[in-house]
Design a protein that fits this description.
Rossmann fold; two-stranded antiparallel sheet; single chain; alpha/beta; 9 helices; elongated; Arc Repressor Mutant, subunit A
Length: about 200
């Protein structure tokens, strides 16, 4: 008999959690190493149990699921299965080493296929999500030289006052240019821009 792939599921919506457990158990190719519905339970579970795959929702009732990734003492395939398909969440997940990013609009069978491919070394980003990533990338390419400079300085954590001083321009000018950057990139705040 072929060895089953161990899976940990971290999902706070009880119906989705049970659906994932039922599906992966019934495939006969996976074994459920653990299933929890919040961040605190997940930290305890991940400190005691390892698995080849983690299926993770981004937003849990008691916190941000992606904060679990740096705590892992093992290297699983990480599959995010979530309702969030905006650039900020996607980019944050991919920067943390997520292998599969799939919208909950997709079926669990499609999630299974993506995980199977990821176990063979392939990454998977949901098509609807990839379109948004491409749009942001294309938008970033439309930034002027000055907008790109300010974008980079904001990403490096500099305040508007420090940026103005470094570039020899007025703080108000920095604010105006930053507003243009927000519009082109499609973010609403400095915090969102820094998360890109």
């Amino acid at each position: 008999m072929d060895k089953k792939t161990s899976v940990i599921i971290i999902e706070d919506h009880s119906i989705v959690l049970q659906g994932l457990i039922d599906y992966f158990h019934k495939t006969d190719r996976f074994t459920i190493a653990g299933a929890v519905s919040n961040l605190e339970e997940a930290k305890i579970l991940l400190g005691n149990v390892t698995a080849e795959v983690i299926i993770l929702d981004i937003q849990l009732k008691d916190g941000f699921g992606l904060t679990l990734i740096p705590l892992l003492a093992f290297k699983p395939v990480i599959a995010v299965y979530t309702a969030y398909d905006d650039f900020i969440h996607v980019n944050s997940a991919l920067s943390k080493g997520v292998h599969v990013y799939m919208s909950k609009h997709r079926s669990v069978k499609e999630l299974d296929e993506a995980i199977t491919n990821a176990l063979n070394g392939e990454k998977y980003i949901d098509d609807s999500v990839q379109v948004k990533l491409d749009l942001i990338t294309n938008a970033a390419e439309t930034l002027t030289k000055r907008e790109s400079e300010i974008f980079t300085l904001v990403k490096n954590g500099l305040s508007n006052k420090r940026i103005a001083s470094q570039l020899g321009i007025a703080v108000r000018t920095v604010e105006n240019i930053l507003s243009c950057v927000y519009n082109k990139i499609g973010v609403r705040s400095r915090a969102e821009l820094q998360d890109l």
